[in-house]
Structure formats: structure tokens, C-alpha cells
Design a protein that fits this description.
about 210 residues, mainly alpha, MetI-like fold, about 80% helix, about 0% strand, flat, cell membrane, MetI-like, AA_ABC_transptr_permease_3TM
Length: about 210
């Protein structure tokens, strides 16, 4: 316990970076995930194939490999980016595949009659998706989206591999000095657990408020 209090400023700064990384990458993943979902349910075969290729590719790549490839590959083509920005973009692109699939399952749960009714009153595919289908689909996938948020939080721990000093990297640095891995990493684990518990609580409340009785 004493080692945690002694190094509280470093660990706290790492926690702040983890929260920033989680919030920014999840927001980016949510926006991109809607686009992926739109591709996956598009009536145009080429767009559906594009969405399928995106999901299949990202879901079959380890996030750590993607992070390292992008971090070390960009400078090779003359692009220099801040490690934190690189990690945010890569995690957002990766998690978008999962959010897109969660949203697609929600879209599939909406009655086809809803889409047909929207088109009958003159709405385009994009308008019916935005105004009719997606709002209903979102209400059915609150818990899966919450689970993806928790997974995103845990995945940010990999950002230390590309020089981002998040909570895990901070704990590792402190451990290199103090050589007390158990209290240091138990403390870091508790912090991750509290974030996950808070996310689970919020999504549970939202799910109960937005539940659709069929």
C-alpha cells in the first residue's frame, strides 16, 4: 500500500491518460461503427462486401500487432504522429468493427415493416436508417455496446507498447524502480475494475430505461 501512495502522482497521471485514451477511442469507434453498420446493411452488394471485408479483417487481427504495425509503419512512409494520437486512431478503427456488428444485430432485430414503412413515405435508405431503424436498434444493443466500452478500456493497456504512458505503463515503470509487482499491479487492476464496474452500472441503468417491450 505504501508503494502506491508514494508513487500516486505517476499512477494518477497514467490513469488520466487511460481515461482519455478510452473516451477518445470509443467515441471514434462509435462514429466509425455506425458507418460500418450502414455498409453491412446496405442494399448495394459492393458496399456490403466492403463492410464485411472491414469487419472480417479487423476482427481477425490482434490489436497489438495492428498498433505496432501502424506506429512503426507510418514513419516509413513519412508520416509522424504523436503516440497517443496513433493509439487512439488504431483502437478506434479496431473497435469500430465490433460496434458495427453490435449495431447490425440491433438493426436485424427491428421489424422489416419499419423500414418498408419508412421507404413507403418517401425516405431514402440513409434517411430511414438514421431516423427510423438506428434509433430503435440502439435501444436493443445498449448492453453489448457497454461491453465493448469495457473491452476498449482493457485494450488501452496495449498502448504502452507504442510509448503511451497509460496506467499499465505507469505501473510497469514504478515496478521497475520498486520491484513490488503485487501491490502495484493489484492497485492498477482495481482501477481498471472500477472503470468497468462504473460502465456496467451506467449501461445497466440505460438498458432498463430504454428497454423495448415486444
Amino acid at each position: 500500500m505504501g508503494v502506491l501512495l508514494e508513487h500516486l502522482p505517476e499512477l494518477w497521471q497514467g490513469l488520466i491518460v487511460t481515461l482519455q485514451l478510452t473516451a477518445a477511442s470509443f467515441a471514434g469507434a462509435a462514429v466509425l461503427g455506425v458507418l460500418v453498420c450502414a455498409l453491412r446493411v446496405s442494399p448495394v452488394r459492393v458496399l456490403r462486401a466492403l463492410g464485411t471485408a472491414y469487419v472480417e479483417t479487423l476482427q481477425n487481427l490482434p490489436l497489438l500487432v495492428l498498433l505496432v504495425l501502424v506506429f512503426f509503419g507510418l514513419p516509413e512512409i513519412g508520416i509522424k504522429a504523436d503516440p497517443l494520437v496513433t493509439a487512439i486512431v488504431v483502437i478506434a478503427v479496431y473497435e469500430a468493427a465490433y460496434i458495427g456488428e453490435a449495431l447490425r444485430s440491433g438493426v436485424n432485430s427491428v421489424s422489416k415493416g419499419q423500414g418498408e414503412a419508412a421507404r413507403a413515405i418517401g425516405l431514402t435508405f440513409g434517411q430511414s436508417l438514421r431516423h427510423v431503424v438506428l434509433p430503435q436498434a440502439l435501444r436493443t444493443v445498449v448492453q453489448p455496446i457497454g461491453n465493448i466500452f469495457i473491452a476498449t478500456t482493457m485494450n488501452t493497456a496495449l498502448a504502452g507498447a507504442v510509448s503511451v504512458v497509460d496506467l499499465t505503463a505507469s505501473a510497469q515503470r514504478v515496478n521497475l524502480v520498486e520491484a513490488q509487482p503485487i501491490p502495484i499491479f493489484v492497485g492498477a487492476g482495481i482501477a481498471y475494475g472500477l472503470i468497468a464496474a462504473a460502465a456496467g452500472f451506467v449501461t445497466g441503468r440505460l438498458e432498463r430505461r430504454l428497454v423495448i417491450l415486444r
